[in-house]
Design goal:
- This protein is mostly beta strands.
- Helix content is 0%, strand content 48%.
- The chain has strands at residues 4-7, 10-13, 18-24, 33-39, 46-51, 58-60, 68-73, 78-83, 92-99, 113-114, 118-123.
- The chain is globular, with a radius of gyration of 13 Å.
Length: 124
């Protein structure tokens, strides 16, 4: 089992920045690929970004390319999502997830463990 705890969400004005963190309970954190997903009220959960086990490969949704950056620190069992130039449409609950596949994946079916999520609200 892997327990994931997100932090860093909050309220920010459009154009602002936030950095989300997700810390895993397992020492074997580096065995997992990690992803960020988000879900806005009344909408389906959608892929945001993913990173492979080593941090050498990343993948992004088109809607966040150039604005968001995913990274990881395996020594700290933590994955980050740096969000810049935030827009009101980025408002959602953001959840991190771990995949035993070790490779960056965009489908939530490929993820085995999920955090509880953290709210991000972007005001206009």
């Amino acid at each position: 089992q892997v327990q994931l705890v997100e932090s860093g969400g909050g309220l920010v004005q459009a154009g602002g920045s936030l950095r989300l963190s997700c810390t895993a309970s397992r020492r074997t954190f580096s065995n997992y690929a990690m992803g960020w997903f988000r879900q806005a009220p009344g909408k389906e959960r959608e892929f945001v970004a993913a990173i492979n086990w080593s941090g050498g490969r990343t993948s992004y949704a088109d809607s966040v390319k150039g604005r968001f950056t995913i990274s990881r620190d395996n020594a700290k069992n933590t994955v980050y999502l740096q969000m810049n130039s935030l827009k009101p449409e980025d408002t959602a609950v953001y959840s991190c997830a771990a995949s035993e596949s070790r490779f960056e994946r965009a489908s939530y079916y490929d993820y085995d463990y999920w955090g509880q999520g953290t709210q991000v609200t972007v005001s206009s």
